[in-house]
């Protein structure tokens, strides 16, 4: 894929911003591993048929948040917030108090929990366990990972004769899962990253393959890595949730490690990607609004990286290569949405530096531009074609650009589909592109696009039952400023009196990230039990392109709140449930809009479910000692230097606007080891919210006055919105 990354942190991290779903136990049993099914994995390789990619800048990860780790304070002319907790005693006492409350209240739900758990396990066994892990086709060999074991098989022999290369436990990482795999071009080496659920940082282990694979090198705190040549690996080092240094290391002859690039701007994050044809390794330095790419020629991996286009504020671009020409996916020009660009010259005719010197943005030629309000979900380059995976008004499309006929073919995908997932990434010379489609209530279904036949093929083999009793509806809600906001609704076709049915509304609305609409067993369970599911694609998210994000961030964040209010109001007006049967679910930055709506319109909801929510925007953005605060200013603004920004954030910040009133019930899950959303802020939010609800109840004292349940479950395991199937099931 030509689009490299801003963030490759665990929620999303392909350009399509997701991982493979919770992982499956092996079809071939691994005798060396006792590890249970782990969560999502990223598979990829050099010069192979499977890889996972990163999200483009301007499409920031949903969970890129603030670390709880203390650091050096950066002094400001503005006085630091006086409510800043200076002692660990308060957080510890609050945590202990909340844990005691949770231990007292959780037994009440024991019977319900048992029933739900049994149902979810049944659905998990029916759907998820029947799917297989992604395969890496590499010449005559196929590599795959199952249950913590790496297997190799001959492509023509079938996987029944697969051989185990090694297991995670063999490497001494019994509590870790495999996050990423890269295989060297000559298949002599395999680099894998291993990560535990309780840590943000991964360890890269390089294995020398053979009859008895051995550990060649172990590199701690690595984020991304790619092979530039048979024995030359480039990697980025991660520290305090930042990646700003790129290293090169070699494994034969003169073994050495060398620093090749350092990013000086704290707003920028660095990662690596190899072009589809393996000609170039790209060093991508990205902020949330701006990017810069350096090229390493894989034919000359020891030469210094060459700059493609110096960073220009607001300009985002990504690089792909085909037949000696660079193709650039960029926001250059108007409108500021993605466009495919071709450079003038041919690289083989001049050296790389001279080529890049004559290929500045003033010489870029437009190949294709997206339509207005269209989201580019994914992009894949082939020898004679490229495929764009697009989203428009909630519908998914394929646009196939032919470099031979200079034509564009647009294919609308099934109306029920909400998510793309490229299956096994084909070599750039292949004639077929395989991918999967899914929705929250439809398990992944396999499709293929044939370049030779110019058509879409639905794969005949169905390993799991097809959901037939679920209806998908798409609505448009008119927001406060007359903007139409898309809503996707799912409900059981057999449900009667929909206005009496319980409704679960989902929202996110930040970083240009779409709502996660991949298949989940719990969503299907709710549909089967008569629930209505609604997904509100509000501004601040990315469902309608980069402008949709820009129209809902910084000083426009309130537009997302207006959108959410309009969506829920419309759902009730057209007969989907009513306020007393409506719940709202959000995670991470989605907690900003969900928490704000609880303050402004609590009567619209009966319950709210929040996972690792960001609910104290103002205090967090005032703490510049947190490692990600500076780069987050492009999303929320800088209240330390801008008085208007501080007042604006204060106007919608959930924590700042709690007041005595009748709130909906609230259930929050938080994680002790969460480095992105400080636990202290959540603890204080719960205390303040609970006090406000009790104050309101004591003032009104009406007969039958309803006091909401406000429950916090602080989990010792797991990290920010990132847990195994077992932990998700328990939650």
Describe the structure concisely for a colleague.
Helices cover 18% and strands 32% of the residues.
Question: How would you characterize the overall build of this protein?
Answer:
With 731 residues, the chain is α+β, with helices and mostly antiparallel strands. Among the domains are: 370-465; 466-730, Rossmann fold (3-Layer(aba) Sandwich). Helix content is 18%, strand content 32%. The strands form seven sheets. An eight-stranded mixed beta sheet has the order 28-29-31-30-32-33-34-35, with helices on both faces. A seven-stranded antiparallel beta sheet has the order 5-6-7-8-9-10-11, with no helix packed on it. Strand 21 (385-392) and strand 22 (395-402) form a beta hairpin. Helix 6 (557-573) packs across helix 7 (590-600). The longest helix is centred in the C-terminal third of the chain and has 22 residues, at 679-700. It is found in: Cytoplasm, Cytosol. Keywords: Cytoplasm, Hydrolase, Protease, Serine protease. One of its GO terms (cellular component) is Golgi apparatus. Its EC number is 3.4.21.-. Residues 518-696 form the Peptidase S9 prolyl oligopeptidase catalytic domain.
Task: Produce the secondary structure layout.
Elements: H1 89-105, H2 110-126, E1 135-138, E2 141-146, E3 149-154, E4 163-167, E5 176-183, E6 189-196, E7 202-208, E8 214-229, E9 232-239, E10 242-250, E11 257-262, E12 269-274, E13 280-286, E14 291-297, E15 306-307, E16 317-322, E17 325-330, E18 339-342, H3 352-357, E19 365-369, E20 374-381, E21 385-392, E22 395-402, E23 407-412, E24 419-422, E25 432-439, E26 442-450, E27 455-458, E28 470-478, E29 484-492, E30 503-506, H4 521-528, E31 532-536, H5 546-550, H6 557-573, E32 582-587, H7 590-600, E33 607-611, H8 617-621, H9 629-636, H10 643-652, E34 665-671, H11 679-700, E35 710-715, H12 725-730
Parallel strand pairs: 30-31, 30-32, 32-33, 33-34, 34-35
Antiparallel strand pairs: 1-2, 2-3, 3-4, 5-6, 6-7, 7-8, 8-9, 9-10, 10-11, 12-13, 13-14, 14-15, 16-17, 17-18, 18-19, 20-21, 21-22, 22-23, 24-25, 25-26, 26-27, 28-29, 29-31
